[in-house]
Known about the structure:
The protein is mainly α and about 325 residues long.
Amino acid sequence: MHPVLRTVLQRLALGVLTLFIVSIIIFASVQMLPGDFAEAVLGQAATTETVAAFRRELGLDQPPVIRYFDWIGALAQGDLGTSFSGRAASGVDRSREVAELVGPRLMNTLFLASMTAIIAVPLALFLGITAALKRNSFYDKAVSTSTLTTISFPEFFVAYILILLLGTLWPVFPSLADVSREMPFWDRVYTTALPALTLTLVIVAHMMRMTRAAIINLLASPYIEMARLKGEPPARVILRHALPNAWAPIAAVIAFNLAYLVVGVVVVEVVFVYPGIGQLMVDAVSSRDIPVVQACALIFAATYILLNLIADIIGIVTNPRLLHPK
């Protein structure tokens, strides 16, 4: 078997094993959440027998091990379960499938993440490459200082500053990002502008600094010096010789930040009241909606593992020692 294929398969197997272990951690963590859904719905006046009957109806009376394997078995068949929301003490069941709740919210989060990535990734690569070419110049110091300044502040602070400046003092964009599926595409882009700008300012610094460091490290390599001695223009030296060999560390940090756009977007969604999966998870935790919390957490974990797996594969397939083994 080719070394690249073998290494990729090993990474895939490791990713599946990691996701299985994370599912156990998620389930155990959710079980340790304070409060109980049945008691919250029925209220303090409910008798012990009524609470027990309601818990039995929800399946919460089963041992944790059985509930875990029921959950993971349903997941293997593509069933995320049924939300607890909509269950009432009167016996009326207006609950919905978890997939029905999560699907539209996940699409909204992916829309916000894609919009941010389209802006942030090219901007970070451009700033990193140009800063490396003009190392120790005023431009390099200005770019490094400005990006490190934005990343030094927490997301909610950057969000509130942008709301103050661009939503209140100079009302260019709406302060609340309330989008819907019926909204036209460009209206969604306009409404999502402030959350996307917030996330862009937060993640650009990581990618820019890694790109700059990787390019500077490679500029001292012998084959770069040879390309320069041949008279090749600086842009060709960077794009053809330096950048392809710097993809492994750059891809890793890009994947990490793209994963953050899905996994770590909770604070930004809450600030802008954006109807994404992060906001859904916060609401589900508040109402003790266990199936929704577990589904959201597992989606976050799967996204993080998948994007880091893709970064590993990019690093593998761009490694000349693996592509051309002796």
